[in-house]
Design a protein that fits this description.
The complex is a heterotrimer. By secondary structure, chain A is α/β, with parallel strands linked by helices. Chain A is 42% helix and 15% strand. The termini of chain A are far apart. In chain C, strands 2-1-5-3-4 form a 5-stranded mixed sheet, with helices on one face. Chain C has a 4-stranded parallel sheet with strand order 11-10-13-14, sandwiched between helices. In chain C, strands 12-17-16-15 form a 4-stranded mixed sheet. The chains are: A alpha/beta, B alpha+beta, C alpha/beta. The structure holds flavin mononucleotide, iron/sulfur cluster (8 copies) and FE2/S2 (inorganic) cluster (3 copies). Residues 230-232, 268, 272, 300-301, 324-326, 354-356, 419-420, 510 of chain C line the site of one iron/sulfur cluster (SF4).
């Protein structure tokens, strides 16, 4: 394939769209989880059957469609008909589907599954899914640059490089109201603007934060695996805006498929003039490399991540100076989350105003969540901001798996908090979740039913944070361990009211005295459990004995 | 563990030598080759990359991923992420621990199995998840886990 | 550029980049700080220095946050103080309560912090890790249980000294200091400089204490105990007795040592003068007569010698073969002196009092250190150890009258005194080299280019119409630049960039040695060095060759510099050593 110029890119896209459609398209979800659920043999069976029967069918391996609970997933589209989803497909079932559906034109009801929520909605409606970030996930073959280009891929890059100024891009981002999806929710336009303004003309870096250490969350993995070029396109645009010639993907080593797909996509982009020297013939030079994490949650924190890229222990550094001033190798650097970057192309193409019209208040656009726990249909969803927690559990995910009432939801992972069932009507926005003592976080969402216990769940999170503390600063390093020991005492029914007071005191010391957000937020799950479910704690206490 | 051909290390060093801050990447390669980071290999790598051994050790011991000792033939990882935790991962660990006679993080005396806990491998929808070497087992039940693990273990 | 801000309601103006911690000092506010050492970069490890930023209500660390224009800061309010106390309590929960038996008792930053916060009860569990003490180097002792992970030693060892013996291992609550892998300090590249111990806020790294041994030997009627004190000791030990830094207590120390029971009190400065004659002659041989390689590199710092043998052994041909001054005095005490007093060498027990922990290692470095037939120096104690011994002996340093040393191995010139400061060896050597080359008394004895705290000092001096290029480096981290330039020139076959190089392992030289009283900063280094230069100025003799006792020694015993006898007693050899024994 040639190195594209802007007009060649358009011509190539037109050619792809004009190609005659196959009679049938069969999509098999082949992300990490699909593979784990057994999608490989399904794929093999389909290929074999199609070949044997000499059918005119296109077989595509796609990324995550979001219905993790129903993996392996197969989607069949025959000419003129709406796509049909099959779930929990085995190799046997796959043969049957080819036989009956592709050959015979009959939907096989036994394996047909409804999509999670309603994914086809054209307009963003609270309570329904609306896909911006996930628009290509489960739809295209992530390893095919053509399929990405056919779906407007690299159009935003083309638009930016051939006619916009960096300031215009920043202005679009400001209008869009996009905030960082990595957890803290810092306005993205502001970060881009500050990094652009910082030390002009010097070497700068843009870094994609693909560390995703929050246990129980896999939004970023699905995007990296399912639509790698979208993140790369966001990176290139970001690099151009801030004046960087080098970008780095930092991806956790636990995600080998994501790494493989990103590396492949980088090669494709480079081979086609979309990366490297003289991108799209516009004179802009920018390249990407991939660095791996090595099993440290704290490396998701931006300064620790930078230290890790430098080949050091991933311990956070004091801020200020912020990475925009002094980041990787002391140069101005910008760390953006995967999902944040995946939004960029669409914002550029469809305009900041379009994005800004989605959501409520200061929380704009959509947010991807990984909903797990005691929920009927666990999976990956993308919803407009402002959707309520109740809509997520009840409408989109079909209520609890046990049928028991929801007891609480947890957002923000180990840095977040528990939200009791009584507050399920809270709209999902940065502000509303913050008010309840939780956070938006990166998108982990855990549903608990009446059989779950908040003392134990908060202990679980605390244990995680203690395990992942980098150990650099005393309040987090020692405070976490001391808090854990105190909770263990309560769990063993040996604690007294004084231990609750002790927990609160340790929590304050950690919140105020810890260097980074890990230590500062470690007490959150415990504090929120104490706040909303105090009786679960007090009923475990023994009366204080007189000394 | 078979001794590596000296060329391997040299190759790894050559690949990363001129890339700034590439120690962690080189260690990934090294562990990929040996299954862990042997001391003499670390020492040699340090020499070739011009990185002090102390730096290598502070990095290896910081990151969970790196091992200082040869793990067993089969690495069993039980996910202890939130989703898996809620769906019974602790019982799975207990079961395997009991059967293998080792705690999480340990290797069986016959060096056949290394049992470890990991934090979310990103398949939460399939919770609880156990991996045996590269193979991912989805929706594992404590009652079946031992059989399932043995079924995909190498030469045990 | 300055910034203006408000701290506790008081306006303050400081240079841009000043930390909140330092800015607060300007308005008489003392923010407690535990991990920050004024001599080092911040490590941000304790959190005790937190202050509240009014605009955001958030707490930030004062030690590592630069003051910004318009900031309004509260340094103390009930919540902040509570949090600070909470942190100290946490640290103590993981720290053994062993103050009364600890080397840092009454001189410990953590203990002081506890006292200041009046922590007398805690409801936290005791979670002191069970980690073994490592005394394998016999120079420094590591007790990782007492470590509070402040990171100072690691910064010093890795960055300032470039040795990389110490590192943080593991993470989280398991974080501990150790050499790379599970090896002992003796098996690590540690060069025993003791800078880690000089900067540690606690008793986690201290000198290997040999005070009790010395007492035992002093009490042994069979032994003839003699002692020598290094140049840098005299201007630092006073800090342990309430004197101003830099106060020169030479005469009082002699007196104290005699009261402690030493039969003869010598001075390492004498050995320094002797070193200059030997080393100066060596230089002249190489420089004027082309015998041996240039540059010549000084060898009186054992940490530097160890570092060179481990990291730069290709420099061995450049090294002066001279032993360090205290070794020379040690060797002579068991030969020359022993003969004079008609005592068997084996009965003489030589104690050297040094600013230095590496000297403890040096005395057993190789068989060359037994040139008298016995170990030339039997034990080497640090300034800190001597200060404690003086206290044990009930000696009032404030009022004790000054005494003279035993001149045979105790008289010295100003050139010998300034050995204790970086550049001193070079300056002293130049004074004598001028004489040796020209045969005339030098017209000038002050060579300021060698003085001060710049990491590498370079200069060109006229010696008998020829240019002598010199370099002085202190702090092992500064050595690489110098050595690399020498190496480059050698590889290219060019003339050496310098003819004579002085290296001292400790920043500031021995005045900033690893065994000196705690709390070293550049200010303190300069004050101590000033004490030495003042003595040099005031002294009867400014040059080593003018020291009549040195002349006497050559006349009566050694013959001339670099004689066979000199070589046997005063010189040594070097061998490459592996950085890691394991
Ligand atoms: C302990 C900790 C872990 C974090 N982990 C992640 C992560 O896995 N992925 C991520 O994008 N951001 C993570 N963050 C947030 C990052 O520090 C940073 O704010 C973010 O990557 C910025 O990108 P954004 O502005 O696009 O959100 C973490 C922060 C902390 C304190
Ligand atoms: S708060 Fe915890 S994770 Fe953050 S720097 Fe301190 S010890 Fe490390
Ligand atoms: S991947 Fe599965 S098993 Fe692992 S944490 Fe996620 S849900 Fe649990
Ligand atoms: S280090 Fe300090 S606080 Fe700790 S035992 Fe020694 S004197 Fe006490
Ligand atoms: S300070 Fe307290 S513990 Fe220490 S010696 Fe005095 S009384 Fe005893
Ligand atoms: S004595 Fe010197 S070399 Fe040894 S650990 Fe301490 S600072 Fe490092
Ligand atoms: S040994 Fe001392 S200086 Fe080193 S980290 Fe521990 S407390 Fe700090
Ligand atoms: S090395 Fe330092 S302590 Fe030793 S003799 Fe020289 S100046 Fe004195
Ligand atoms: S500079 Fe002086 S105190 Fe420091 S190690 Fe060398 S001889 Fe010892
Ligand atoms: S469908 Fe595979 S990640 Fe969910
Ligand atoms: S929680 Fe285990 S894979 Fe995510
Ligand atoms: S003195 Fe500032 S963090 Fe320790």
């Amino acid at each position: 394939m040639p190195k594209f110029t802007p007009s060649e890119l358009d011509a190539h896209k037109a050619k792809l769209l004009a190609a005659p459609a196959k009679k049938a398209v069969i999509k098999v979800g082949l992300n990490t989880c699909g593979d784990a659920a057994g999608a490989q043999p399904v794929m093999a069976a389909i290929k074999e059957e199609v070949q044997k029967a000499g059918l005119d069918a296109q077989i595509v391996k796609t990324g995550c469609s979001g219905m993790c609970a129903l993996e392996p997933l197969v989607e069949v589209t025959t000419a003129g008909a709406a796509p049909v989803q099959y779930g929990r497909v085995t190799a046997e079932a796959a043969r049957e589907i080819v036989e009956k559906h592709i050959k015979g034109g009959r939907v096989v009801d036994a394996y047909k599954v409804p999509s999670v929520g309603d994914m086809s909605s054209e307009k963003p409606v609270p309570g329904k899914q609306y896909r911006i970030v996930l628009r290509n996930c489960g739809v295209i073959d992530p390893e095919s640059l053509d399929e990405y280009i056919a779906r407007d891929g690299y159009q935003a890059l083309k638009q930016v490089l051939s006619g916009m100024t960096p300031e215009q891009v920043i202005a679009e981002l400001e209008t869009s109201g996009l905030r960082g999806r990595g957890g803290a929710g810092f306005p993205t336009f502001m970060k881009w603007k500050l990094t652009r303004a910082s030390r002009p003309g010097e070497q700068k870096y843009i870094i994609c934060n693909g560390d995703e250490g929050d246990p129980g969350a896999y939004m970023d993995r699905s995007v990296l695996e399912g639509d790698p070029h979208a993140v790369i396109e966001g990176m290139i645009i970001g690099g151009w805006v801030i004046g960087a010639s080098q970008g780095i993907f930092y991806i956790r080593a636990e995600y080998p498929l994501a790494i493989e797909r990103i590396e492949k996509a980088i090669k494709q982009a480079r081979a086609n003039g979309l990366l490297g020297k003289n991108i799209l013939g516009t004179g802009f030079d920018f390249d990407l490399e991939v660095r791996l994490g090595a099993g440290a949650f704290v490396c998701g924190e931006e300064t620790a991540l930078i230290a890790s890229i430098e080949g050091l222990r991933g311990t956070p550094r004091p801020r200020p100076p912020y990475p925009a001033q002094k980041g990787l190798w002391d140069q101005p650097s910008m760390v953006n989350n995967v999902e944040t970057l995946a939004n960029i192309g669409q914002i550029v193409l469809r305009g900041g105003a379009w994005f800004g019209a989605i959501g409520v208040g200061r929380s704009k656009g959509t947010k991807v969540f990984a909903v797990t726990g005691k929920v009927k249909v666990s999976g990956l969803i993308e919803i407009p901001m402002g959707t309520t927690l109740r809509q997520v559990v009840m409408d989109i995910c079909g209520g609890t798996s046990s049928g028991k009432p929801v007891k609480a939801m947890q957002t923000g992972g180990p840095s977040g908090g528990l939200i009791p069932a009584s507050l399920l009507d809270t709209p999902i926005t940065y502000e509303d979740l913050g008010k309840l003592g939780s956070i938006m976080g990166s998108g982990g969402m855990i549903v608990m039913d009446e059989s779950d216990n908040t003392v134990e769940l908060s202990r679980f999170y605390l244990d995680f944070s203690v395990d992942e503390s980098c150990g650099k600063c005393a309040p987090c390093r020692i405070g976490g361990t001391q808090m854990l020991r105190t909770i263990d005492k309560i769990v063993e029914r040996k604690g007294t009211a004084a231990d609750i007071a002790k927990i609160r005191k340790i929590a304050l010391t950690m919140q105020r005295g810890s260097l980074c957000a890990l230590g500062q937020t470690t007490p959150n799950p415990v504090l929120s459990a104490l706040r909303y479910f105090e009786s679960e704690w007090t009923e475990r206490l023994v009366p204080a004995t007189k000394k | 563990m078979a001794a590596a051909a000296p060329g391997d290390l040299a190759l790894i060093a050559k690949r990363w030598k001129d890339k700034r801050g590439s120690l962690i990447m080189a260690l990934h390669d090294l562990q990929g080759r040996f299954g862990y980071v042997p001391r003499d290999a670390a020492q040699e790598l340090g020499k070739q990359l011009n990185v002090p051994l102390a730096r290598i050790y502070e990095v290896i011991t910081f990151y969970n991923y790196f091992k200082l000792e040869a793990p067993g033939k089969n690495i069993i990882s039980v996910c202890m992420g939130t989703a898996c935790y809620l769906k019974g991962a602790p019982e799975i660990v207990a079961k395997l621990s009991e059967k293998l006679g080792v705690k999480a993080g340990e290797t069986t005396p016959d060096k056949q199995f290394h049992l470890q806990q990991v934090r979310c491998i990103g398949c939460c929808g399939l919770a609880p998840v156990v991996t045996v070497n590269e193979k991912v087992l989805a929706k594992v039940k404590a009652a079946d886990v031992v059989d399932q693990v043995y079924a995909c273990a190498k030469g045990a | 550029m300055t910034v203006k801000a408000i701290i506790n309601g008081i306006p303050v103006e400081v240079a841009e980049g000043t930390s909140i911690l330092d800015a607060a000092k300007k308005v008489s506010v003392k923010i407690p700080a535990l991990c920050k050492h004024p001599d080092l970069d911040h490590t941000a490890a304790c959190g005790i220095c937190i202050v509240r930023i009014k605009a955001t209500g958030r707490t930030l660390r004062a030690c590592c946050t630069p003051l910004e224009n318009g900031m309004e800061i509260t340094t103390h309010d009930p919540e902040i103080v509570n949090v600070r106390r909470g942190i100290v309590e946490m640290i103590m929960s993981k720290h053994p309560n062993e103050c009364v038996t600890c080397a840092r008792n009454q001189n410990c930053e953590l203990q002081t912090m506890c006292a200041d916060f009046n922590i007398h009860t805690t409801d936290l569990d005791n979670i002191v890790p069970d980690l073994p003490v490592d005394a394998t180097t016999k120079s420094i002792v590591l007790d990782p249980r007492k470590c509070i992970s402040c990171g100072r030693c690691i910064q010093v060892c890795q960055k300032d000294q470039n040795v990389w013996a110490l590192t943080f291992m593991e993470r989280g609550i398991e974080t501990r200091i150790a050499p790379a892998g599970d090896i002992s300090m003796a098996e690590s590249p540690c060069v025993k400089c003791g800078q880690c111990s000089a900067h540690c806020p606690t008793g986690a790294i201290v000198e290997y204490d040999e005070g009790p041994d010395v007492w035992a030997k002093l009490a042994d009627p069979e032994l003839h105990c003699v002692v020598q004190i290094a140049p840098a000791v005299r201007v630092a030990i006073g800090e342990a007795f309430g004197f101003k830094p830099g106060t020169n207590l030479t005469g009082k120390i002699y007196a104290a040592l005699r009261r402690m029971g030493f039969k003869a009190v010598f001075d390492t400065n004498f050995g320094a003068d002797l070193t200059i004659l030997e080393e100066g002659s060596e230089f002249v041989e190489r420089f004027a007569h082309g015998k041996g390689e240039l540059p010549l590199i000084t060898s009186c710092c054992p940490a530097w010698v160890d570092f060179m043998e481990k990291y730069h052994s290709d420099m061995i041909p450049h090294f002066s073969s001279c032993k360090s001054p205290h070794e020379m005095v040690g060797a002579l005490s068991k030969t020359y002196y022993a003969e004079k007093i008609k005592t068997e060498a084996k009965k003489i027990y030589m104690v050297s009092v040094m600013p230095c922990t590496a000297k403890k290692y040096e005395i057993q470095r190789s068989d060359d250190m037994k040139s008298s037939g016995y170990q030339d120096v039997d034990v080497s104690i640090t300034t800190r150890e001597l200060a404690r011994m003086i206290k044990q002996a009930g000696i009032d340093m404030q009022s004790i009258p000054e005494e003279q040393p035993d001149h045979l191995l105790g008289a010295y010139s100003g050139a010998g005194t300034i050995f204790g400061a970086t550049g001193g060896v070079m300056e002293a050597a130049i004074r004598t080299a001028l004489k040796l080359v020209t045969g005339q008394t030098p017209g000038r004895v002050d060579f300021e280019v060698t003085r001060g705290l710049k990491g590498v000092k370079e200069g060109v001096l006229e010696v008998a119409g020829k240019q002598v290029k010199i370099a002085v480096a202190h702090g092992l981290g500064n050595v690489e630049y110098v050595i690399n330039k020498v190496r480059e020139a050698k590889q290219k076959g060019e003339a050496p960039p310098w003819h004579f190089i002085e290296v001292m392992a400790c920043p500031g030289g021995c005045v900033g040695g690893g065994g000196q009283p705690y709390g070293v900063t550049d200010e303190l280094r300069l004050a101590r060095a000033k004490g030495l230069y003042q003595e040099d100025q005031a002294g009867m003799w400014r040059c080593s060759h003018d020291n009549p006792y040195i002349q006497k020694l050559y006349d009566e015993y050694l013959g001339k510099p670099l004689s066979e006898k000199s070589h046997h007693l005063l010189h040594t050899h070097y061998n490459p050593r592996p950085q890691y024994q394991r």
